[in-house]
Write a structure and sequence with these properties.
Strand order of the largest sheet: 1-2-3-38-37-36
Radius of gyration: 21 Å
Largest sheet: 6 strands, antiparallel
Number of strands: 38
Distance between the termini: 34 Å
């Protein structure tokens, strides 16, 4: 079945439950790490698991001869509306490397990567919660505004200058209507993925209503064919990639669907994984009986190095066949493998190199009762290589870094796993716990950077036990900054500052 544009389609009343900062989160912070499942012998030697952050210059963990050193931390004045789903992004802001992230109080922060000071002219005040992970392109920071938890608050698409006299000020803002027939504007929780669409550097994201927007980065003009009728709310950030090797980017995204038997064809309860052309033409779709909230990843991970798309699902419909699923498909929307994992698969998969050989593995976290799991799967066939039980749920996507481990003389990626019980660092080869830092609850992805002093940096953004926003930056001794974005790395949410979600070579 293909998704038809029908303006009479009923929108689901209300909004779906979303992960937000939960009451009693202090009880989650400091929970001892659950033991990992049995794996192959570990390469790294984990000497110390930190009890939490300790202040600038403190060594909070050691493993395999490396020290994880806290460089700086910031407690944000967000009055109990801290950072939740917004993942930190690396951007050049006012001529300096900065960490950019949004909070539920409606602030978009830009913090100097060196020292953590607020960049002059920031934060930008959006006037509504920010769950969106910001993207960065062409001297701008782009993001969505709005939250399903606050449905009456008007949001939309925003671009803020990151350079020049307008630094920290609004460049353009676009609202998005609830339905094709208009209605009140709705919010945008997804990140704005950036790529070359219709000959222009453009940004695209779905909304919490029925419409999806795509705009020129330069001035915010709507692209031809947009707003596109997406059928139901979207929380996932689209991927942008040249799927077919023809020098043109396509849009890859998930979405939701609500049953309506009075339309032709009739709509059903579930969701979609779909590919759109640059002008909003539906190229292919795989329909699911669970909505798709997971942000898709694209890369050459299928058998023989073929291009594939992988995403999790969601949690709205209960007891359905695609619940807790991780789905891999071809650019033609043909499913090649589907795994069912232990726990909800709403977060975003990462494509990374953790094992010997030319292929990429899929890293995925889950949220389950009493905690969650981190998985590493063979990208070719979906075989589970290892899984590790964690004290907290994984809601933000896993990222990775080359932290010095070698296997038969070859380097590989270790996994940075954000949980509601803090950050875990896992050995990429075996899944063993190298370090656990439970001082900050996380629902967003860690950021990996090549720091100016030549080391790899790790930034986490979340909340403490008092629901105050926390941003903490670490460095790992004995690492090389140049490897932060090497082939096989997945250093931030959706892979890069443009949030392409793709390991393929960019167009343009």
């Amino acid at each position: 079945m293909t998704v038809e544009r029908d303006t009479t389609r009923r929108r689901r009343s209300g909004t779906r439950a979303r992960w937000t900062v939960a009451a009693g989160v202090a009880a989650l912070l400091g929970v001892a790490a659950a033991p990992a499942l049995a794996h192959a012998a570990d390469h790294h030697a984990a000497d110390h698991h930190a009890a939490g952050t300790r202040g600038a210059g403190a060594v909070v963990a050691t493993f395999d001869g490396h020290r994880l050193v806290e460089e700086w931390s910031r407690t944000l004045p967000d009055q109990g509306h801290p950072i939740a789903l917004s993942s930190p992004t690396s951007a050049l802001v006012d001529g300096r490397r900065a960490v950019v992230v949004g909070d539920l109080a409606g602030n978009l922060w830009a913090l100097d990567l060196v020292g953590g000071a607020t960049v002059p002219g920031w934060p930008y005040h959006a006037g509504a919660p920010i769950e969106s992970s910001p993207s960065a392109a062409a001297g701008q920071v782009l993001f969505g505004v709005g939250s399903a938890a606050v449905p009456g608050v008007v949001g939309g698409y925003r671009s803020v200058w990151a350079a020049g006299r307008g630094n920290g000020r609004l460049h353009w803002a676009r609202s998005v209507a609830l339905t094709p027939n208009g209605g009140r504007p709705t919010g945008v929780a997804a990140g704005l993925a950036v790529g070359v669409l219709q000959g222009h550097l453009s940004a695209v994201a779905g909304s919490l209503g029925q419409m999806e927007g795509a705009y020129s980065v330069a001035g915010g003009a709507a692209l031809r064919g947009f707003p596109w009728w997406q059928a139901d709310s979207q929380f996932d950030t689209p991927a942008i990639a040249d799927l077919y090797g023809n020098g043109q980017d396509e849009i890859v995204e998930g979405g939701a669907s609500t049953a309506n038997p009075y339309l032709h064809p009739a709509y059903y309860n579930g969701g979609h994984l779909r590919v759109l052309s640059q002008s909003g033409r539906l190229l292919c779709v795989h329909n699911t009986d669970e909505e798709v909230d997971s942000s898709p990843a694209v890369g050459r991970f299928l058998a023989g190095g073929a291009v594939g798309i992988v995403a999790g699902t969601g949690t709205f419909y209960k007891g359905v066949s695609d619940e807790d699923a991780l789905i891999a498909m071809t650019p033609g929307c043909r499913v090649t493998w589907e795994d069912h994992l232990a726990g909800a698969t709403s977060d975003s998969p990462a494509l990374l190199g953790a094992l010997p050989g030319p292929g990429l593995e899929v890293a995925m976290g889950t949220a389950a009762a009493g905690g969650g799991y981190a998985y590493l799967l063979d990208g070719a066939d979906g075989r589970v290589v290892w899984r590790t039980r964690l004290a907290g749920s994984v809601i933000g996507g896993i990222t990775s870094a080359d932290l010095g481990g070698t296997w038969d003389g070859r380097a590989y990626q270790d996994l940075l796993v954000p949980t509601t019980a803090g950050l875990y660092i896992l050995d990429g080869r075996s899944g063993s716990v190298l370090a656990h830092l439970p001082g900050v609850g996380l629902q967003s992805s860690p950021l990996v950077t090549g720091d100016p002093d030549g080391l790899i940096g790790i930034t986490i953004a979340g909340y403490d036990g008092h629901d105050q926003g926390q941003v903490v930056h670490f460095e790992v001794t004995g690492t090389r900054a140049a490897l932060a974005d090497e082939a096989g790395a997945w250093p931030m949410f959706h892979r890069d500052p443009q949030l392409t979600g793709s390991t393929l070579a960019p167009v343009g």
